[in-house]
Amino acid sequence: MSATAAAVTGNGASGKGAISIRNVTKIYDPGGADVLALDDCSLEIASGEVCMIVGPSGCGKTTLLNAIAGFHSITEGQIDLDGEMLCGPGKELATQGADRVVVFQNGALFPWKTLAENVAYGPIVQGIMNKAEARDKAEALLAEAGLGGVADKYPGEVSSGMARRAEIVRALINDPKVLLLDEPYRAMDALTKSIMHESLLEVYDRTKVTIFFITHDLEEAIFLGDRVVVMTTRPARTKKIVDVKIDRPRDYRLLSSEEFRILVQETKEAVHEEAVKAFEAGERELA
Amino acid sequence: MAQSSKNKKDGKLKSLFTDLTLRRGVFSIVIFLVLWEVGFRFHDWFGIMVPFIGKIDAPSLVAARWSEVVFKPGYWESWYLSFGRVFFGFMVAQLVGIPVGLLMAVNKYFRGMFFPPFEILRPIPPLAWVPASIIFWPTTELSIMFVTFLGAFYTIVINVLGGARSIDVQYLRAAQSMGATQWDLFRKIILPGTLPSIFIGAAVGMGITWEVVLAAEMISGGGQQSGGGLGFFIWSSYMGGVMDQVIVGMISIGLAGYISSSLIRYVGYISMPWKRMF
Hints:
The complex is a heterodimer. Chain A has helices at 61-69, 115-125, 131-144, 160-172, 190-207, 218-224, 258-281, and strands at 19-28, 35-45, 50-54, 76-81, 84-87, 100-103, 178-182, 210-214, 227-231, 238-243. Chain A is of the alpha/beta class. Chain A folds into two domains: 19-99 and 176-281, Rossmann fold; 109-163, no CATH class. In chain A, strand 9 (227-231) and strand 10 form a beta hairpin. Chain A starts with 18 loop residues before the first strand and ends in a 6-residue tail after the last helix. Chain B is 80% helix and 1% strand. Chain B contains twelve helices and two strands; from the N terminus they run H-H-E-E-H-H-H-H-H-H-H-H-H-H. Chain B has helices at residues 2-18, 20-42, 59-69, 73-106, 108-121, 130-136, 140-165, 169-177, 182-219, 223-226, 230-239, 243-271; strands spanning 44-45, 48-49. Chain B has a two-stranded antiparallel sheet with strand order 1-2. The longest helix of chain B is centred in the C-terminal third of the chain and has 38 residues, at 182-219. The interface between A and B is medium-sized, with 31 and 25 residues.
């Protein structure tokens, strides 16, 4: 399948948050040894799409996310958001902004702030709301997510599932165009994970925010995504795009359906091939 | 919910005074005092000279001496003087050390310029600065304070620098992706993220400050020009051959150090509410 295929099955209802990644190349330079992390990588993500990114460890998925978020520069190519250039020729590093909020692998709620203070952080530093307004909004959003009872707890006092849900609320209060999730549910047990999935789908159905979601869990990818993009081993390119033409809202009965299993199998074959290549190359994971 | 967690904390406090740990602590101190007393009374056990403890005055003598000393204003003046020097040196070390540590952490040019000389100066023991300090400063008082300051300064800077540099980059990125400016990052991420290290630096620095102030008071012969302090109290008691009073001085320092570090722990407790659950 062509890497630039724009066959999009997303809902596209919100009309914002379309990402266009065109011929992006990234060369890392750790201590003089050039490492090609992304090689001529292209991908079109429609507004309101849930785009799942899978691929071998260290292939460059996070590099792509970092380029969109503005944490890392790109070497060549261009990334646009809603037709406006984030980074490209003449501007290697995208400006960080609250229109693209990141939810991290290991959780990044500030331990020194309560959940409500964490959620209120974005609007306060952007100067959109004063402290009292932000706090009210944060409490309302937390309550909506079923976290009203723990709004005044510190992240260290709540379960990892609650913390991760609060982190998504913290991202959503900024009304982002795109939610960038970097393996947010890694290292969670299967039961907690399934609760996380339901709550994320519920959020998505409500906001129709564009979601760029990196994962290693293929079932998670198919269950949540509109499309699953399989990346090659480093340097990363799009190898295969799996369209998930399953109606929303989705629930857990889907997991045992034939349709679901065929899609998982199809994705697994593509990923496995790349995983074997990565393993044989024996390359160390790139953070 | 809040009520139940409050009860739990009260329960913790209560259990501190009833639980085994405290009783064991009291028991071990009592045993120690009894052995010391017995050791002093008999001088030797079964023909073997009791080392160390048998040679110095027994706790009963120390207690008797202490009960006299507490009524002498000189004793309290020693407390006051030593506390003053420790407090002053420590506070100046905090006021200078925290910004220097933070600046080194966030600015690579500043770090490049000041870290090498800092690392050369750091291994020099504060007491080696005594002669230079006497030349630097017009009064003995200021010399002692300067040496005290040095004792805490390096530890504070190293802790702040290490603490600020080890803040998880994800916190910084999360804040930036929510629109934080550099100043927001510094004030709302780096500063609170460094707070635990600041208090570790303070606790260690406070210990060193007490060590240094005592030695500085002894060396400078604190008496003539600016008077006493607990270090001088011990030294002059020793010179006068009043051994039980030396021990009164030693225990006083132990208590003074304990009070100081309790204060730091308390300030840490109220300024870092997110650490309270541990």
